[in-house]
């Protein structure tokens, strides 16, 4: 039996500890060991049995170009496989096009540069326009990077998808979570202005009503990361899932290891306010969508 703490630590326990309230040796928080095997999780109508759980352990595979994750249950048994392709060649080609386009703008700007004050001011705008052209062209030419959740790493059966809605996003980038047959479950979005101080993702229903927010767990740590970076992983980016009213319903924590390992813990949401399929999709985007 596996018990996962919100701080990211994962412990292997004997069966007799099932349901027992314990204390995490690493952070001192209380955590409850997993359910006994004879106590099934409440099911979600229409959802795959792989999502009938409150704790997901995500391990990112290394030495791969694409973002790949193995998803395990609280017992450590693999239940799903996630992949988000990178399209390296097409991405490099997009940047080459962007450099060419920006160079053309700079070429016209260089011709306009003289000692005349008005032309000098215009040249400054020309450099800014060249940068804008580079950003727009590179983003427009890059392929959309959809996330696919498979039954296993054979990739024969699709269980869930997270679709990137747009190539060019000025202030807000959005994603659509769908089932394998295309049924929309939720929409995820992040505002780049909010992310300047504290990362926050919005989780909404297909109709647009806010279901939950995923927010960096500490504004202090968030600001420190903006200044100092991650400090070799010491300043980890963890997220808290909250209802719109501010109540905590779950956490997504990065475990301090050489490899990227994460714990998605939704035990504070026994009423299943947040669909576990949507929660897993959000967890994946909190990593790959933030380039952690």
Features:
single chain; globular; 12-stranded antiparallel β-barrel; Tubby Protein, Chain A; 292 residues; 16 strands; two-stranded antiparallel ribbon; alpha+beta
Would you give an account of this structure?
There is one protein chain. The chain has 292 residues and is of the alpha+beta class. It folds into 2 domains: 40-87 and 143-288, Tubby Protein, Chain A, CATH 3.20.90; 88-141. Helices cover 26% and strands 30% of the residues. It has a 12-stranded antiparallel barrel with strand order 5-6-7-8-9-10-11-12-13-14-15-16. A two-stranded antiparallel sheet has the order 1-2. The protein has a two-stranded antiparallel ribbon with strand order 3-4. α1 runs antiparallel to α2. The radius of gyration is 22 Å and the shape is globular. The two termini are 29 Å apart. The model has no long low-confidence stretch (mean pLDDT 82).
What's the mean pLDDT score? 82
Number of domains: 2
What order do the strands of the largest sheet run in, or round the barrel if closed? 5-6-7-8-9-10-11-12-13-14-15-16
Q: How many β-strand stretches?
A: 16
The share of residues in helices is: 25-40%
Strand content: 25-35%
The major β-sheet equals:
12 strands, antiparallel, barrel
SSE sequence, one letter per element: EEEEEEEHHEEEEHEEHEEEH
Poorly predicted parts? none
Using the 3D structure, state the CATH architecture of the largest domain. Answer: Alpha-Beta Barrel
How is the CATH topology of the largest domain named? Answer: Tubby Protein, Chain A
């Amino acid at each position: 039996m596996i018990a996962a703490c919100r701080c990211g630590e994962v412990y292997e326990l004997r069966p007799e500890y099932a349901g027992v309230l314990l204390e995490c040796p690493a952070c001192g928080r209380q955590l409850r060991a997993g359910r006994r095997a004879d106590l099934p999780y409440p099911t979600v109508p229409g959802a795959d049995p792989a999502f009938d759980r409150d704790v997901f352990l995500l391990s990112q595979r290394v030495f791969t170009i694409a973002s790949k994750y193995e998803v395990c249950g609280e017992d450590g048994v693999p239940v799903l496989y996630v992949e988000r392709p990178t399209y390296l060649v097409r991405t490099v080609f997009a940047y080459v096009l962007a450099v060419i386009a920006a160079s053309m703008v700079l070429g016209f700007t260089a011709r306009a540069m003289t000692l005349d004050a008005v032309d000098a001011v215009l040249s400054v705008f020309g450099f800014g326009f060249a940068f804008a052209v580079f950003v727009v062209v590179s983003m427009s030419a890059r392929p959309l990077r959809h996330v696919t959740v498979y039954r296993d790493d054979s990739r024969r059966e699709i269980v869930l998808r997270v679709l990137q809605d747009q190539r060019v996003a000025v202030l807000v980038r959005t994603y659509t979570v769908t089932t394998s047959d295309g049924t929309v479950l939720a929409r995820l979005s992040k505002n780049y202005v909010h992310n300047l101080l504290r990362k926050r993702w919005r989780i909404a229903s297909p109709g647009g009503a806010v279901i939950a927010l995923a927010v960096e767990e500490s504004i202090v740590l968030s600001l420190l990361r903006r200044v100092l970076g991650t400090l070799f992983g010491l300043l980890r980016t963890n997220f808290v899932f909250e209802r719109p009213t501010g109540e905590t319903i779950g956490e997504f924590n990065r475990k301090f290891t050489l490899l990227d390992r994460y714990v998605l813990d939704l035990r504070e949401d026994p009423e299943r306010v947040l669909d576990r399929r949507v929660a897993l999709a959000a967890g994946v985007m909190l990593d790959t969508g933030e380039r952690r």
